[in-house]
Amino acid sequence: MRFFKPALILVSLATTAATAAATPVEVSFVNPPGFSDAGSTVWEREANLRALTEHLQSLGARYLSADQTLKVVVLDVDLAGSMRPSGRAGHDLRVVRGGADWPRINLRYTLQGGGQPGLSGEESVADLDYSHGFTAQRASRPLHYEEHMLDVWFKARLVERRAPAGGRP
Fold first, then answer.
1. What's the whole-model pTM score?
2. Is 73 helix (H, G, I), strand (E, B) or coil?
3. 59 pLDDT tier (thresholds 50, 70, 90)
């Protein structure tokens, strides 16, 4: 049984490395401890940033061609809702009220390849209306609102190449 656990860990790491190598999306973070709200603990922040990375990579695998590469530098993260102390749960809880607590991710991106001119920019991706509509009714996963927001941004900006509101691509 001693050899099973290390072998399982090695297989998991190899699978993760192979997936990361196969994806056309590279994600990096600038000063995660200084982010507005990426989690209330170091472990939560790391898990959330890993989940955001994996989500962006899955979008790249789904929508980008094999000869395209996307580099995303995340400058700040502010998750939906806010943290509130909870005596019952024994830890803080994230409360989503649908007010001025919308998700926001500041990022810089560069998309190259695919036989099209390169595309780059710096944006504050936000969803001020995140708690309304059909998608809000199914918000059962962690980072659901942030993932939905990134889905909409990715498709509009990188797949359909629509310019940001009031700007150019």
1. 0.74
2. strand
3. very high
